[in-house]
Design brief:
single chain, about 800 residues, alpha+beta, Serine Threonine Protein Phosphatase 5, Tetratricopeptide repeat, 4 domains, five-stranded antiparallel sheet, kinase, transferase, Kinase-like_dom_sf, EC 2.7.1.67, 1-phosphatidylinositol 4-kinase activity
Length: about 800
């Protein structure tokens, strides 16, 4: 009965889109418990030697391999639940490892259709249930057995001869599959073990993990890797596509998978992750005939589509058509996030595909059109004073802006004019107050200029296109410290409604609808939208290039999404920054937060003492929550700071909010640029004495250990997305930003440690943390900032 249940529960398919079991890592324990049950049954003496037994083994192997027909995922299980799932996998690995001695010709090659206890009718039913599950022609022993209820179709002599000839082949085939399963399982177990026990603590070790580690440590030849890739392709092309991701990008496996994909691309055209094996620099330069399959390939992510218009790939009409088709398939607000890269893609658009797409998306969404115009205005010049034109972009972008604006009519044109008039008046305040001396006179001039601005319905701040401006705090106008450039801060009352609703309201305001009906609709929605209203402070800068901050915060926004998908309880605050013209931009302020510099001037105490003073004694619930928030944000920003090499981390650029989160601002130095003539003096991560004090006071303390564990998990979570991050940065290389000095992509890729195993990657990021902790260069840099700029430390 149990064998029949397993036959009914385990489909004989690998890598299909439908009919498979759940491949999510959260279901790994349930899947492999069931498979372990079946494998133990096969290795016992309960089942008779029959075809049904061989079919069950095939089902178990298929369902095991099917789990790996998707990208690796971070586990959502925690603590005891994750440990239990790891134990299940380890026990299954051990059972599968011992299966070799049961793979004998006398067992696997036994095609006795009817065991001593089976009847003709039950076996016939079993065969019918299995034969319908084959998704593709079988290549193993099953093809040699007639799916018939009568054994008279084979003579006894022919049946016996087939068993003798084929038995050894079947055994070798199973051993190859077994070895592939063991390798894939060992890598998965290693990843889950690192996630469960990032610091390798003895008390968290799992029984049997040493045996798997020893098995993984054995040298594997290039031939075996190549054979594994071929075997995976024969079993399921989808399995082969994900093999390099699973086995950490072995060159031999990548070459073999690329060869197979190019020979038969149509079988994996529904898998977006298979496209890089078909479309390479070589295939594009050589105009390979198989590129035509790209036109009907499954959609990839927007940033990977834009990468075909970057330095990473030579221009080609097929890749350009495919990229534009993919971008057009996404809603306009999804493309909004990648506008800086979309505008830069015009540089490498030799055939005009990007230009036509920009015109199309600007017609599709008015808000996206506005954002495109602001970004194109910014990138027409390479200096902040608008004296030096970007020769490769200026003419094209100028014509594009004219084309977008001239195509507007009716409500769309009124919306554009109203929005740009409103924002122009706000930014002009900076120029109006510049002649006044710093202090009370400039403050008075700022308030006077701000009081003249009237809020127009349906307008928004460029940094926040999801929220409509409904009021201005006319007393909030505050000039910033800079004397020459005169940036200022102001607060706005905004109503969050989403891009689509904002656009609908703005277009309705511009249309010929009666004002009375509009007022009624506003009145109906007022009560529901009140809870979405908030005050938003923003800084309007003139004379500063904020495009580098935009790029850093873009990457931080992607990391935030990655952490959320991985179920990691980390905190990031990617505040909004938008460049609207050369040297001009809007920077949203971090709410309810003060810089460490401000806190130092106000309290003159260390960060730990500040936490005690604000949240109470170390044993209080408030302090524990604040420390927890500090560690969650500290881990996230530490990993990002290392990967992006964010420098100039003095106390003026580090903020603390009221809940204890640490938030980094001002990304003027990153990648290859750093203060002091790009010396790279600061360590990879800023970990000062006072930060360590908040996290327990020493590296052995439990809070600091938790911080290190979160850093390891965050690093492992972002590594699979390294190509997306690299593509995002690659598209910005030609902007002339000071952070790019020739080796950016090479160094960025190296920091992801692409060839390292998960265990090696964990050890790598732990070494970075240890080298940064108590680093004398951190304290020295803070001292320099104190003596030069009077920033407390």
């Amino acid at each position: 009965m149990l064998a029949t249940l397993l036959h009914r529960s385990l489909p004989m398919i690998v890598g299909t889109r439908e009919g498979h079991q759940n491949r999510h890592v959260a279901a790994v324990g349930v899947r492999f418990r069931l498979l372990a049950c079946g494998l133990s049954l096969l290795q016992g003496d309960v089942l008779p030697r029959s075809l049904s037994k061989n079919v069950l083994r095939e089902r178990i192997y298929c369902n095991c391999l099917d789990y790996f027909c998707c990208p690796p995922r971070c586990p959502t299980q925690r603590g005891a639940e994750l440990r239990e799932d790891i134990l299940v996998l380890v026990r299954f690995w051990q059972t599968m490892h011992s299966d070799k001695k049961y793979l004998k010709a006398s067992v696997v090659g036994d095609f006795d259709l009817y065991g001593p206890h089976s009847s003709s009718s039950s076996m016939q039913s079993d065969l019918r249930s299995t034969s319908g599950d084959f998704a593709r022609p079988a290549t193993g022993w099953i093809n040699t057995v007639p799916l018939s209820s009568s054994s008279n179709t084979l003579s006894k002599r022919s049946a016996r001869s087939k068993r003798i000839v084929n038995a050894d082949i079947f055994v070798k085939d199973y051993i190859k599959k077994r070895n592939l399963i063991l390798e894939l399982l060992a890598v998965e177990i290693e990843f889950l073990l690192i996630w469960h026990n990032p610091l390798g603590r003895t008390e968290l070790q799992v029984p049997g993990e040493d045996n798997i580690a020893a098995w993984r440590a054995k040298a594997v030849t290039e031939r075996i890797l190549r054979d594994n890739a071929r075997l995976a392709w024969d079993i399921s092309p989808v399995l082969a596509v994900f093999l390099p991701m699973r086995l950490k990008n072995s060159d031999s496996i990548i070459r073999e998978v690329s060869t197979q994909v190019r020979l038969n691309p149509i079988v994996v055209s529904h898998v977006p992750q298979a496209l890089p094996y078909l479309v390479t620099t070589d295939t594009l330069l050589n105009d390979a005939h198989e590129l035509v399959y790209m036109l009907t390939w499954a959609p990839i992510s927007p940033i990977h589509a834009l990468a075909y218009f970057s330095r990473q790939f030579p221009p080609h009409p097929i890749s350009a058509q495919y990229a534009v088709r993919v971008l057009s398939s996404y809603p306009a607000d999804a493309v909004l996030f990648y506008i800086p890269q979309l505008v830069q893609a015009v540089r490498h658009d030799t055939m005009g595909y990007v230009i036509e797409f920009i015109k199309y998306i600007a017609r599709k969404s008015q808000v996206v059109g506005h954002q495109l115009i602001w970004n194109m205005q910014t990138n027409m010049y390479i200096d902040e004073e608008m004296q030096q034109k970007d020769t490769s972009l200026y003419d094209t972008l100028e014509l594009l802006i004219k084309s977008i604006v001239s195509s507007l009519s009716g409500p769309a044109k009124q919306f554009y004019e109203r929005e740009f008039d409103f924002f122009s008046k706000i930014t002009n305040i900076s120029g109006e107050i510049r002649p006044y001396p710093k202090g009370a006179e400039r403050k008075r001039a700022c308030l006077e200029s701000l009081s003249k601005i009237q809020v127009q319905e349906g307008c928004y701040l460029p940094s926040n296109p999801e929220a409509m401006v409904i009021d201005i705090d006319y007393k909030s106008g505050t000039p910033m410290q800079s004397a020459a450039k005169a940036p200022y801060l102001a607060r706005f009352r905004v109503r969050r409604c989403g891009i689509n609703e904002l656009e609908n309201v703005a277009m309705a305001v511009s249309s010929q609808h009666s004002s009375q009906s509009q007022q009624l609709s506003n009145k109906d929605s007022f009560s529901s939208s009140m809870k979405c209203e908030m005050w938003q402070a923003a800084i309007f800068k003139v004379g500063d290039d904020v495009r580098q901050d935009m790029l850093a915060l873009q990457v931080i926004g992607i990391f935030k999404n990655i952490f959320q998908q991985a179920g990691l309880d980390l905190y990031l605050f990617p505040y909004r920054v938008v460049a609207t013209a050369p040297g001009c931009g809007v920077i949203e302020c971090v709410p309810n937060a003060k810089s460490r510099d401000q806190l130092g001037r106000q309290t003159d105490i260390g960060m730990f003492d500040y936490f005690i003073k604000k949240y109470g004694d170390e044993t209080t619930k408030e302090f524990q929550n604040a420390r927890r928030n500090f560690i969650k944000s500290m881990a996230a920003y530490s990993v990002i700071g290392f990967l992006l090499q964010i420098k100039d981390r003095h106390n003026g650029n580090i903020m603390l909010d009221v809940d204890g989160h640490i938030i980094h601002i001002d990304f003027g130095f990153m990648f290859e640029s750093s203060p002091g003539g790009n010396l790279g003096f600061e360590p990879d991560i800023k970990l000062t004495d006072e930060m360590v004090m908040v996290m327990g006071g020493k590296m052995e303390a439990s809070p600091f250990r938790w911080f290190m564990e979160l850093c390891v998990q965050a690093y492992l979570a972002v590594r699979p997305y390294q190509e997306a991050i690299i593509s995002l940065v690659s598209l910005m290389l030609d902007t002339g930003l000071p952070c790019f000095r020739g080796q950016t992509i090479k160094l960025l890729r190296a920091r992801f440690a692409p060839q390292a195993s998960d265990k090696e990657a964990a050890a790598y990021i732990i070494s970075i943390i240890r080298n940064s902790c108590y680093n004398f260069r951190t304290r020295t840099y803070d001292m320099i900032q104190y003596y030069q700029n009077q920033i407390p430390y």
